Batch of 2 targets.
Target 1
Amino acid sequence: MMDDVLTIGEMCAAYQVTARTLRFYEQKELIWPIRQGSHRLYDRKARARLQLILRGKRFGFSLEDIRQLLDMYEREGSNQAQLERTYAVAVDRLGQMVAQRDELDLAIAELKQELAEGAAMIAAFKAAAE
């Protein structure tokens, strides 16, 4: 059993996170390492939870959403409620992301227009100075 654990350094390397991040998630009760004195060891469950946390963060889920979704997991259950809630949170987040992208696309188009006008004005100034 203890052969199947990673140290905090190994976790950091494997998942490209900092020790501070792992301790933060532990403080927020999202993961629970095995304690051996002052050493933290991470079993399969902790690694699986970390993968889900990182995926949720990449999608922009809040830590509270992630916690609630993880807490809904039932080892021996169907996890239908967890799946339905995850789906609803993901649909909502996708809507937010699409709206953000649309706003960004608009800002990019406006900035390009402003830059084109600015370039034309600069060229006019240079032509007049010659």
Target 2
Amino acid sequence: MTDIQNDTQIDTSARPALPDRLAVQPRSPHYNAAIFEHDIGIRLNGKERFDVEEYCISEGWVKVAAAKALDRRGQPLLVTVKGVVEAFYR
């Protein structure tokens, strides 16, 4: 019975440490593919956000897409929102 319990537990040692700054876009120097293999969450001022494109914990900001606006390359325009940022694995 203990073998079944061990199989259902989540192994947190296999997850890489969350960086101070992370971006969703693969073109960014702050992109890390190994982290996106796991489901991560971002809290800004205590509320969980699901639309974060990039974050920086030490500087206290997240970047989110601004509605349907696109730049000249077809990428969404990003708006910086400041506050207390927390990153975590779900």
